[in-house]
Backbone:
């Protein structure tokens, strides 16, 4: 996507400043309705979910003691995968957002929760709650846009290293929890700083993260396999834990990609965001910068209700079980103000997000100007852009964009 | 080969093994703690956070009920007259209150508290009308100095008003459940608004009928408000009696003045701190962990912060136990009981700030708390 201010027709051109403020007022009203009604039913939901998750995880780990038997391995691995996904998505992510702080239960509170993930709760709360949710989809400020390692927007300058980003994205998906941990630490930026000049905060965060990773790995790859040792299940249990982590990583990566990466989700220019962004403007940015996944109740649960990414970004601290309830009202608001409520089934959103990753791994306009007849020339051009330095790259880029524009004009005419 | 391990060595060996097993279990369930896992199966076990399970809710009057709770294994017991802090989830929100224990130690190890639903009382209304058997509540260990001396004096005067009877009924039940009743001459002056709303009325009359106590019943609607000056008329041998009183602040203040004037000892129990009528200015309370809370000058910082979802340490909620103390690093707070203002100035009041009790302190301007 191109940042919203550079598009030929802005999707918000038809809104007056009064409209934007009115949207804010109406969304605040929806939020207030939930706050007024929030109570015992919600508390029951999260407590039950936490109990079910813990029983499922313990049960699965118990089954895995016998994982030398293939059927038990499958059963335990599936159970553990589901348990880890529930813990990270519907419980951990949402508890750390403070969605349940109103219960005043120290056991289910954003300040005390630690999740089953390589990244520390503190690191996550800073990078995710503070940075990403505040500066959602602002190019250059929201590091979730490509996690600082990928090009997910036309306005990020293309460089040959991005050719490999589909591969990186796949690797990142498999080891997503470590990717998140590195991302929360801003590892890339910090490692570029000479060792002696790194901040005390970074060094202390790094220590904490390494400690967390060690404990997580000890649990999954040493202690639990060792418990299965008397039943001949060390290696199968180790494999089961690895598989469950892999499944959780790929699943959460896919769901999160669907939240902001699908084609059609808007991004924003840093300088177009006023310092005194109003509540209405902030809401509007969240509305345009998120995409939903449509599907069954079970799907919503397994995505931690991030399938209601739009509602989540509008109301990050409302209990997640309420997103489905407010979704029809939110969607009606989108329709009233003629905005695009971006929602599609999971496979479609995953495809769309991956399509964007692949498309943007290539220079702007390259994919659009390539067809069966010119694939050889285009490949040569790409080779030149990748190997012959910045000047060639700039010239070729200008040419590509010109051809793409002409082609678009022709097809429009 | 025979082993001659001493019992002591064996037990320390066992506990070392226990520690080691526990460490392995902790490593197997991280980032959870082992207790989080055990809580799923056995929330009342030894070593768990102190909780209790409601085993009965018995109506006393239309607006009061006795709640019988089976406490966790770590319940350390109590002395009649003491109170307990109890945390109840009301409409999903955990709220803590303090109630007197209305039984002495019971053979079934359960504890009981009797609650009067006060108008607009969120927790008391919930406990009396909506609490269900089987529900879990959070508990703290029993506390309180309002207990009878040992050995008992020959003559006692107990003055109670309204729900002020609750610690006293615990004392009486305990005394009279003993195989050998205590040889103490007890006079109970019990004040209530009406006869119908008097908790434990029939039980007290029963004690009186059995000759265990001398009961003086006073009902405001029938007899008018009790004037402490009438006390010597109601209790002729007043000066010979060791006095205990529990009830609303007005009565206790008057009694304290009355007894002080006569040079008599009096032990009182207050359910709420006496707060000043005047309201301070309030302000924004900022916490070191991030959140900021707008608090008015009449609301304790503890309440304001909890309403905003901040997890606060808390205790008696009446300025006694120091369980809620946090360092004030900057700004000013007002003590709601006496209006005293505490000020912290960075650089002047020490790096750790000034410890304040959040349960009886209201913001007096913007302030920063290290929490």
Residues:
């Amino acid at each position: 996507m191109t940042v919203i201010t550079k598009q030929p027709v802005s999707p918000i051109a038809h809104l007056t400043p009064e409209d934007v403020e009115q949207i804010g007022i109406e969304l605040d009203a929806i939020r207030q309705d939930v706050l007024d009604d929030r109570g015992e039913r919600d508390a029951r939901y999260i407590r039950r979910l936490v109990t079910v998750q813990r029983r499922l995880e313990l049960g699965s780990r118990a089954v895995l003691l016998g994982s030398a038997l293939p059927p038990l391995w499958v059963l335990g691995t599936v159970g553990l995968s589901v348990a880890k996904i529930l813990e990270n998505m519907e419980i951990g992510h949402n508890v750390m957002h403070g969605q349940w702080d109103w219960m005043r239960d120290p056991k289910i509170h954003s300040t005390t929760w630690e999740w089953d993930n390589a990244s520390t709760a503190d690191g996550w709360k800073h990078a995710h709650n503070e940075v990403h949710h505040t500066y959602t989809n602002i190019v250059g400020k929201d590091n979730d846009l490509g996690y600082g390692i990928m090009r997910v927007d036309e306005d990020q300058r293309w460089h040959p290293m991005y050719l490999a980003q589909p591969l990186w994205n796949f690797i990142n998906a498999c080891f997503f929890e470590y990717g998140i941990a590195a991302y929360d630490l801003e590892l890339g930026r910090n490692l570029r700083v000479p060792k002696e000049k790194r901040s005390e905060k970074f060094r202390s965060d790094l220590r904490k993260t390494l400690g967390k990773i060690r404990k997580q790995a000890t649990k999954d790859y040493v202690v639990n396999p060792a418990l299965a040792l008397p039943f001949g299940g060390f290696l199968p249990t180790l494999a089961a834990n690895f598989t469950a982590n892999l499944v959780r990583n790929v699943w959460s990566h896919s769901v999160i990609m669907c939240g902001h990466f699908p084609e059609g989700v808007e991004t924003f220019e840093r300088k177009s965001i006023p310092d005194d962004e109003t509540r209405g403007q902030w809401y509007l940015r969240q509305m345009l910068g998120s995409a939903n996944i449509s599907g069954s109740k079970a799907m919503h649960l397994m995505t931690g209700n991030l399938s209601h990414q739009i509602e989540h970004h509008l109301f990050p601290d409302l209990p997640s079980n309420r997103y489905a309830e407010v979704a029809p009202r939110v969607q009606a608001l989108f329709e009233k103000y003629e905005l695009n409520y971006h929602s599609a089934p999971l496979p479609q959103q995953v495809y769309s997000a991956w399509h964007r990753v692949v498309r943007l791994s290539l220079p702007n306009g390259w994919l659009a100007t390539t067809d069966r007849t010119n694939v050889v020339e285009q490949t040569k051009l790409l080779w030149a852009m990748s190997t012959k330095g910045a000047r060639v790259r700039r010239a070729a880029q200008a040419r590509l964009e010109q051809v793409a524009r002409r082609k678009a004009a022709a097809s429009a005419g | 080969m025979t082993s001659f391990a001493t019992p002591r060595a064996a037990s320390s060996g066992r506990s070392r093994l226990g520690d080691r097993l526990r460490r392995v279990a902790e490593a197997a369930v991280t980032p959870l703690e082992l207790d989080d896992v055990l809580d799923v199966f056995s929330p009342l076990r030894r070593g768990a956070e102190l909780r209790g399970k409601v085993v009965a809710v018995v109506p006393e009057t239309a607006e009061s009920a006795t709640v019988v709770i089976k406490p966790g294994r770590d319940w350390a017991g109590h002395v009649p007259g003491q109170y307990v802090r109890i945390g109840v989830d009301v409409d999903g929100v955990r709220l803590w209150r303090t109630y007197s224990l209305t039984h002495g130690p019971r053979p079934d190890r359960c504890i009981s508290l009797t609650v009067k639903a006060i108008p607009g009382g969120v927790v008391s209304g919930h406990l009396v009308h909506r609490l269900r058997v089987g529900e879990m509540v959070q508990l703290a260990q029993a506390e309180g100095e309002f207990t009878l001396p040992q050995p008992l004096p020959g003559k006692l005067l107990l003055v109670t008003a309204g729900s002020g009877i609750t610690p006293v009924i615990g004392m009486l039940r305990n005394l009279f459940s003993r195989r050998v009743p205590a040889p103490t001459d007890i006079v109970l002056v019990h004040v209530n608004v009406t006869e119908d709303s008097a908790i434990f009325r029939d039980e007290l009359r029963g004690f009186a009928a059995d000759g265990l106590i001398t009961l003086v019943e006073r009902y405001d609607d029938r007899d008018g408000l009790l004037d402490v000056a009438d006390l010597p008329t109601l209790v002729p041998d007043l000066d010979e009696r060791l006095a205990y009183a529990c009830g609303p602040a007005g009565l206790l203040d008057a009694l304290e003045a009355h007894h002080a004037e006569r040079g008599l000892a009096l032990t009182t129990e207050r359910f709420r701190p006496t707060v000043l009528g005047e309201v301070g200015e309030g302000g924004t309370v900022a916490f070191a962990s991030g959140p900021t809370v707008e608090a008015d000058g009449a609301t304790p910082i503890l309440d304001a912060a909890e309403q905003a979802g901040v997890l606060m340490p808390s205790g008696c909620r009446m300025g006694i136990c120091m369980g809620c103390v946090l360092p004030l690093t900057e700004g000013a707070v007002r003590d709601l009981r006496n209006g005293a203002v505490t000020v912290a100035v960075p650089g002047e009041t020490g790096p750790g700030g000034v410890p304040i009790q959040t349960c009886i302190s209201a913001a007096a301007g913007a302030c920063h708390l290290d929490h």
The radius of gyration of chain B is 24 Å. The interface with chain A takes residues 24, 27-32, 36-37, 40, 89, 91-95, 289, 306, 309-311 of chain B (CB under 8 Å).
